[in-house]
Design a protein that fits this description.
By secondary structure, the chain is mostly beta strands. 0% of the residues lie in helices and 50% in strands. It is built from no helices and twelve strands. Strands 2, 4, 5, 6, 10, 11 and 12 form a seven-stranded mixed beta sheet that branches. Strands 1, 3, 7, 8 and 9 form a five-stranded antiparallel beta sheet that branches. The protein starts with a strand and ends with a strand.
Length: 117
């Protein structure tokens, strides 16, 4: 399994950015996929999840600003970010579950998002 994240970059506060995570290997539309982020000096935290039943969830810190659409035909999940704030600056990681009977998750490489004030 490979999770290829892309789309990070430098953006001004208030701007928008879309991250992409293309999955290959055994990942299908039945896998949950999501995004975490890790800011400098902080622990990794969940951002958004596209769950196995198709429901989407976003953390309180990004609710109303971020969405997590998914394109099953492309086996890709996105993180659509708008109204970005400097505190959204972090390395964003894509993740996917390994199935209902496995508590472990696959992780992709991170992509850096920097929001300038």
């Amino acid at each position: 399994v490979q999770l290829q994240a892309s789309g990070g970059g430098l953006v001004r506060a208030g701007g928008s950015l879309r991250l992409s995570c293309a999955a290959s290997g055994s990942i299908t539309s039945r896998n949950a996929m999501g995004w975490y982020r890790q800011a400098p000096g902080k622990e990794r935290e969940p951002v958004a999840l596209f769950s196995r039943d198709g429901a989407t969830h976003c953390s309180d810190s990004v609710k109303g600003r971020f969405t997590i659409p998914r394109d099953n035909a492309r086996n890709t999940v996105y993180l659509q970010m708008s109204s970005l704030k400097p505190e959204d600056t972090a390395v964003y990681y894509c993740t996917a579950d390994r199935g209902a009977l496995d508590l472990r998750w696959y992780w992709g490489q991170g992509t850096l998002v920097t929001v300038s004030s």
